[in-house]
Write a structure and sequence with these properties.
Elements (H helix, E strand, L loop, with lengths): L1 E4 L6 H10 L4 E4 L2 H6 L2 E4 L5 H10 L2 H10 L4 E4 L1 H5 L3 E2 L13 E5 L10 E6 L1 E2 L14 E6 L1 E5 L5 E6 L3 E8 L2 E4 L7 H12 L3
Parallel strand pairs: 1-2, 1-3, 3-4, 4-13, 5-6
Antiparallel strand pairs: 6-10, 7-9, 8-11, 11-12, 12-13
Amino acid sequence: MIAIIDYDAGNLKSVEKALLSLGQETLVTRNREELLCADKVILPGVGNFGDAMGKLRAYGLTEVIPEIVKRGIPFLGICLGLQLLFEESEEAPGVAGLGILKGKILRIPEEKGLKIPHIGWNSLKLQHEGRLFEGLEREPYVYFVHSYYLKAEDEGIVKAVTEYGTRIHASVEQGNVFACQFHPEKSSDTGLRILRNFAGIR
């Protein structure tokens, strides 16, 4: 069973629908025991870093999420869910992230002709043999919606990058923790394959 963390994020239902289409049993919950008993856990998210951290704290999830990770349960952050796993974001100065992974979330730099937020399809450059991307072509196209991007401290955890005004760390993997800046649930067959790969991780 794959648990989807409910902290009032906007893309909960689309993630759940994608998983159900793959035949996965899902549970949308913020209950501590249900999350800790799940086979896998997903932290989705769209919106503001500071607001999201406030909701995670209010629901007691800032304590539960590190415990999930510590127990070795496969964990996937999607879009804002990726950003929250890191230490801080320029979107919300002074607000600490979960700090499970090392790195910072930066605003996409202004550039003539470049629209922010970045909304649309971009190709990924895969590297370091990420388990989420097994069976995919070397430069798969995925769907992004974001104004901020990850710069991970350790390049070794970065499994996919893309270019949009700057070099964006688009997916990371460290132990049982996985994260994507893009939306696999909105990335057609490629995204479904990524979610299927996550569901298959042991």
